[in-house]
Fold this sequence. Notes:
The chain has helices at about 10-25, 35-75, 85-120, 120-135, 145-175, 180-205, 215-225, 225-240, 250-265. It is an all-alpha fold.
Amino acid sequence: MSNQIIKKFTFFTGIGYPLLAIKFIANHKQLWQYLIIPIIINIGVGITTYILLLNPSLNLFDTLTNNLIIWVDNAIDRLPEWSNILITILLFISQIFKIILFLILLTIIGFIIVQFGSILGAPWYGKLSEKLEILYTGKLEIIELNIIQDIFRAILFELKKLLLIIVVSIPLFLLNFIPAMGNFISLGGGIALTTTIICLDFFDATLERKRLHFRQKLKFVWGKFPTTAGFGLICLTLISIPLLNLIIIPLCVSAGTLLVCDKNR
């Protein structure tokens, strides 16, 4: 039976879709079987990513900070005694930067888990999205292709996402060399790009069944602003939380399916 269609779409409507997905999945226990294997895959990807990226990055930062403190300590030996406060200031600043680095790394790790987890868990996410759409709308819109075409489209989709990231990231990086405003524009652009990729990932299980081209998928994401912005930002926040990001991806795929179904109606 179809749920009541949400009439008014806003930024906060998009934020609410993960909660709507939790409620819907809780009420339809037949969907639970499609969550188990993707969660196991995500746990494997997450543990590997944390081991390979998080600890080495933080250890490297600590090493560089310690070397800098030693260099400053040796330098101030030749300065008045009051200059010892420089060490305290340096330690304080390093801790601030470490917290910022930690938050950035959590976001990057969450993003990596989504990319690899989505690829490895694609068959189960596809089934989850199909069953959810049938239960939510009472029908399933799908254009059948053979397995070779499916694989080709999946590879092409990932390559086009990568190309989009590269093409947009280069000018955003260069903006950082512009004093003051350049950094803020670059940060805003980076968040917009990441949110767009997140939306593409979590909408794709539904949009791909309609065999839309990559530009059409982008048009859907950008054309449904600000709802998709709210959805992308809340999903980005959820996948950046350690441990939670190992189990949250199926929920975000479900939320994306519900959003697409509502928007298409």
